[in-house]
Amino acid sequence: MKPIRLISGFLTVGGWTLASRVLGFVRDAMILAFLGTGPAYEAFVVAFRLPNMFRRFFAEGAFNMAFIPMFSKKLEAGEDAGGFAEDAFSGLAGVLIALTLLAQAIMPWLIWGLASGFAGQEQFALSVEFGRIAFPYILFISLAALLSGVLNATGRFAAAAAAPVLLNVILAVAMAAAAAVGGDVARALIWAIPVAGIAQLAIVWVAARRAGFALRLRRPRLTPELRRLVVIAVPAALAGGVVQVNLLVGQQVASYFDRAVGWLFAADRLYQLPLGVVGIAVGVVLLPDLSRRLAARDDDGGRHAFSRAGEISLALTIPAAVALMVIPLPLVSVLFERGATTAADSAAIAQAVAIYGLGLPAFVLQKILQPLFFAREDTASPFRYAVVAMVVNATLAISLAPAIGWIAPAIATTAAGWFMVLQLARGARSFGSVARFDDRFHRRIWRIGVASAVMGLALFGGEAALGEWLEAAGWRYAALAVLVFTGMAVYFVTGHLIGAFRLSEFRQMMRRRRERQDD
Per mean pLDDT, which of 10-24, 50-64, 107-121, 164-178 is the most reliable? Predict the structure, then answer.
């Protein structure tokens, strides 16, 4: 087999994801500045979450978790991978068109199901209007996700990873243009969402065509292979549904507290930066690589890929989690506090950020452990684990809300995330050595924890030293940059000295990547 270059793929996906998430911060800062955390913002949050919720069923969630292993194995065996992909593309499009039409008709009920606390308030009517405009995004982004799966399985990661950048650019431009001409920023923002979906679909379709997979829409047909794909995808869809129930429970609880939906959404955006750059990037690359190695019976290579994915992910995730827990308020206030967003909003968002930070390693570990199951076309086990995690999440969110208020969903999400990891790790034991981290991982992981703790102490002291500068309007950006880069320097120097990693390894990876790009 021609192996997928795990580190190179991770750097490509991670780099583009980092660019997307940075631009996402620009987008979110603009939204909060223009809309604050009031009715229009909460309506946008609910409306945008609606197509994204269904996307987890049909795109990078259920469908792709079943599609990528099957496509990868056909590609490895030299079978008709292109024909299979085109059948899947057409079948998915047919289902999504029907779903979009249905959603337009029942939108008020969908919004009530997402945020019943909005009933009788201004947010409800706005959410229905915005939901109808935004929902067609699911059609374009889900088809784009399938094409991204085709590209990832062939070891081409750049176009699929770059596509999300378009969403943030288009939304930011739409808001800026509306504000410049005195238009309705909220409606410009929501109309830009389906436009961005079309742009994302276009970029990956062109890339897939150049890779030799010019998929076309045709009349859907239920072939034996497509039936098998559906059988494998259904448990994954149910697992994705469980995850969405978790989000739904959290949003329902939050909708009964003033501005809480917006606070939790903003906090979610902040912790999603390291999750996207690290966990999702490694998961995207690891699944097709493990699938092809299993098809080639390369267990040693599979264990090495799994161990290096875990090592790299946690080396970047654990310090990020520490930073979110130690300095959440400076991060939130500098990034989001402007315009209609107040200091009280920043304090609330920072509280949620710190709690999500505690769960960040769990969210990343899920992205590493799940491919062990999906690569074997086992989507039933993760579904069972997700159901248990859902019960934990719902029980905690609903029971804690009367006592501690709007922050209960964040606590429940973090606790359920760690419970899910424990179940995945226990279930993967039956896979043998390929699902066990190697000796190098075990030698380094505790050192990564020590280096992260030292960095946390440096950030704590740095925040105290730079307190006035972090609050000064003209200096807070520079002060935050000094604080963050100081923390990074402390972490990398400490980690290098105690053997958590070798800085030369990062330099070698980057050099090899540049050499391959030059070739």
Answer: 164-178
Domain ranges of the chain: 6-437, 454-519
pLDDT digits (tens, 9 = 90+) for 426-482: 998 888 877 788 888 899 999 999 999 999 999 999 998 888 888 777 788 889 889
Instruction: Give the pair of three-digit tokens for residue 90.
Output: 């057409």
Pairwise CA distance, residues 56 & 238, whole Å: 10
70 pLDDT above the threshold of 60: yes
Tokens at residue 390, please?
């859902």
Instruction: Annotate 130-177 with three-state secondary structure.
Output: HHHHHCCHHHHHHHHHHHHHHHHHCCCCHHHHHHHHHHHHHHHHHHHH
CA contacts within 13 A on the Cβ side of 496: 12
Rounded CA-CA distance 325/144 in Å is: 35
Q: Are 55 and 237 in contact (CB under 8 A)?
A: no
Q: Which 8-state DSSP code applies to residue 298? A: -
- Please name the residues in contact with 397: beta carbons below 8 A apart, sequence gap of 6 or more: 249, 250, 253, 408, 409, 411, 412, 413
Residue with tokens 């943030």: 168
Angle at Cα 46 formed by Cα 347 and Cα 360, nearest 5°? 50
Residue 354 Cα to chain centre, angstroms = 18
Q: What is the CA radius of gyration of the chain?
A: 22
Query: Angle formed by the axes of helices 408-427 and 343-374, to 10°?
Result: 20
Check: CB of residue 213 under 8 Å from CB of residue 85.
yes
Structure tokens given for 164? 């999300």
Distance (Å, whole) CA 282 – CA 270: 19
Tell me the whole-structure pTM to 2 decimals.
Answer: 0.68
What is the torsional sign of CA 406, 407, 410, 411? negative
d(Cα 316, Cα 170) in Å, to the nearest integer? 29
Residues 6+ apart with CB under 8 A from 75: 81, 153, 154, 292
